[in-house]
Structures are given as C-alpha cells and as structure tokens.
Write a structure and sequence with these properties.
The chain is α+β, with helices and mostly antiparallel strands. It is 24% helix and 45% strand.
Length: 143
C-alpha cells in the first residue's frame, strides 16, 4: 500500500485540533481517555498537566495507543516539558488547539503545564475503503 498517500491523509485528518482517545497502561491495567491533539510528522502533540494520571502512567511505561477518525496506532509517550521550552511548537499548538485554549483548559503560567508528544511507531488508517498499514520509524521524520 502507498505510505505516501497515507501520510498525506494523516496530515489532512489530524493536522489540526482533533479529539482522539489515548490509552496508557498502569501495571497490567489499561486506561483510556479523550484528548485534544494535533498531528505533525509522525507524532501527535497535546497540552496537559504533568501531574495527571496519563503522565504518571507514561513516566512508568511510555507505551501508548491512540485512535480516532478511522486511525489507530501505537507509540511512545514523551513529556517535552513546559511549553516555554519549545516556543515554536507552542505557537503551533496555540493556533491548532485554539478552541482548547478558549475553553480555559490551558494556563501557561502554571509550572505543571507540559507538552505531551506521542511519537508513533505503527498504525492503521482506513480511508475510502482502503486500509493502510503504516510504519512510523522513530529515527526519522515522517513526510
């Protein structure tokens, strides 16, 4: 299957604020929650609080799964720290997650605010009756 087409579809579907489901694991017990995130070059990005359950789970076990809008994938969760540590990415997230900001979910003055990146390893995307099995190499940017 054509991965180039699949990556273009990923950009189209998820290259803006999107509600997805994120699964983490604590011990042997999975936990799923809704997150608003943004996709770019093989990773999903979201703003959260470093003290949340999902961030505690990721600190213990970074293996995660994410799904929504006919995509499901596996990846590695990573705390990129406070948004001020990455101003270019923060500008993008402010723009792409504007509704999340407008609803009062983000206080950048709070020291616990962080950027969570889910760096994808693999996934399945379905579009127009076609199933794309996708590989997201961790050692290079996806197109």
């Amino acid at each position: 299957m054509d991965q180039t087409a699949a990556f273009a579809l990923m950009d189209q579907r998820f290259g803006h604020g999107k509600l997805m489901s994120l699964a983490t694991v604590e011990g042997t017990r999975p936990s799923v929650r809704g997150v608003t995130c943004y996709y770019e070059k093989g990773s999903f990005y979201m703003i959260t609080d470093a003290n949340t359950e999902k961030m505690r789970h990721i600190a213990q076990n970074p293996a995660v799964a994410i799904c929504g809008d006919w995509f499901s994938g596996h990846g590695v969760g990573e705390n990129l720290g406070h948004p001020r540590n990455n101003p270019a990415l923060m500008d993008t997230l402010r723009r792409e997650l504007a509704e999340w900001y407008r609803l009062g979910h983000v206080d950048e003055a709070d020291e616990a605010v962080c950027i969570l990146r889910v760096k994808l390893t693999d996934g399945v995307l379905i579009a127009d009756g076609t199933k794309y099995k996708m590989d997201f190499p961790l050692n290079r940017n996806c197109k």
